[in-house]
Design goal:
single chain; binds pyridoxal-5'-phosphate; 16 helices; about 400 residues
């Protein structure tokens, strides 16, 4: 394996993770990114900022999240010890609140009264609207018109939480177009507005900020596994869409080279245009302000993506994952729609926990490799969110429509 630099060695001062990352934005946004970076650098070393965030994470979001020993699953493997990191137990049902709470506090520090965000399936929009409401900030969420139609319940939730949802009619009218529209809004409103991006992506310093805010997952896990097992885990597994729950889980383990880190992408239907496995099939390119791996055709046009789980449906990946892949520190694999659906049902029956379809990909892969690991191996799977939001869709796919 290549020498792995200290976890803090990236990004470099230009926001680059090896060949990836950077800032590929119009001139008008460079000032905003500079202001954000300065505000974050000052917040990062300010104990008062972290105390305020820790209070919010504890009292509002419900942290620390549990590390649950999956007893029946473990027993069925004949001696592997499998733990689930229960991010599904957070307020709003996923890890996304870790990021939005942190960035809302950052926005307040910067004196910004208005929050904007993009959302695909609506989960990040709901988490942003939730944090904005809790701290009394105005909130506008950009969402592709196609997603608005498909995700009525989340649109209603955001509105209930006081956010305005703007339906985006350009392009394919999905997440990618919503991000472009949010960036456009930000260009015109930087003075009073903070843009809360939903994953470890976009121009520097966003990937670093979101990673740092999600790293609470890995820090807690590290402490919890040490308490329970007296040693670090052998293997840590997380699903990868943009990559924030995985980056937050992996980052505190990056320097622990004996710990295998495995990111699971959406294999979809295992054919071109019908998956979202960016590390496996992407090529270097620029999208949404960053140099990263992008799913693109021969002409460099961004390819359509598909996954049964809306949260993994993104044609690129955070630059730090592209970097971890390039230095071979993290293994990237994929699980198909069918495997994720099976895992969704299987975990529900086996452990009494209904996972979101996104982490069902990580569960699926963990099921596949657990029996191949030595007896006594300690495996942690990040359960990034709960599956209530997916029940109607899974019922429909399984031929038992409930609506
Ligand atoms: C949004 C979402 C994801 C995918 O986003 P990442 O940035 O890759 O973490 C994964 N799991 C759940 C439950 C989500 O809501």
């Amino acid at each position: 394996m290549t020498d792995v630099p200290a976890a803090n060695a990236v990004p470099d001062p230009h926001g680059r993770y090896g060949a990836f990352g950077g800032q590929f934005v119009p001139e008008t946004l460079m000032g905003a990114l500079e202001e954000l970076e300065q505000a974050y650098v000052s917040a990062r070393t300010d104990a008062a900022f972290w105390t305020q965030l820790d209070d919010g994470l504890r009292d509002f979001a419900g942290r620390p999240s549990k590390l649950y020993y999956a007893r029946r699953w473990s027993e069925s493997t004949g001696g592997r010890r499998i733990y689930l990191k229960r991010e599904d137990l957070n307020h709003t049902g996923a890890h996304k609140i870790n990021n939005t709470l942190g960035q809302v506090l950052l926005a307040r520090r910067m004196g910004k009264r208005r929050i904007i965000a993009e959302t695909g399936a609506g989960q990040h929009g709901v988490a942003t609207a939730t944090a904005a409401a809790a701290y009394g900030l105005e909130c506008v969420v950009y969402m592709g018109a196609e997603d608005v139609r498909r995700q009525r319940l989340n649109v209603y939730r955001m509105q209930l939480l006081g956010a305005r949802v703007v339906s985006v009619e350009s392009g394919q009218r999905t997440l990618k177009d919503a991000i472009n529209e949010a960036l456009r809004d930000w260009m015109e409103s930087v003075g009073e507005t903070h843009y809360i991006i939903g994953s470890v992506m976009g121009p520097h310093p966003f990937p670093m900020i979101v990673r740092d805010l999600q790293a609470v997952i890995g820090r807690e896990t590290r402490t919890q596994v040490l308490e329970r097992e007296g040693r670090l885990p052998d293997c840590v597994i997380a699903c990868v869409g943009g990559g924030s729950n995985a980056a937050g889980m992996f980052h505190p383990f990056i320097d622990d080279t004996p710990v295998r880190l495995i990111g699971v992408e959406a294999g979809g239907e295992s054919r071109p245009g019908r998956h979202a496995a960016t590390i496996a099939h992407g090529r270097p390119g620029v999208l949404h302000g960053m140099q990263t791996l992008v799913l693109q055709d021969a002409d460099g046009q961004t390819q359509p993506v598909h996954s049964v789980s809306a949260g993994l449906d993104y044609p690129a990946i955070g630059p730090e994952h592209a970097y971890w892949h390039s230095i071979q520190r993290v293994e990237y694999v994929s699980a198909t729609d069918d495997e994720a659906l099976d895992a969704f049902e299987w975990l529900s029956r086996t452990e009494g926990i209904i996972p979101a379809l996104e982490p069902a990909h990580a569960i699926a892969y963990a099921r596949r490799i657990a029996p191949t690991l030595p007896g006594g191996a300690v495996i942690v799977v990040n359960l990034s969110g709960r599956g209530d939001k997916d029940c109607v869709e899974v019922a429909r796919l399984r031929g038992g429509a409930i609506e």
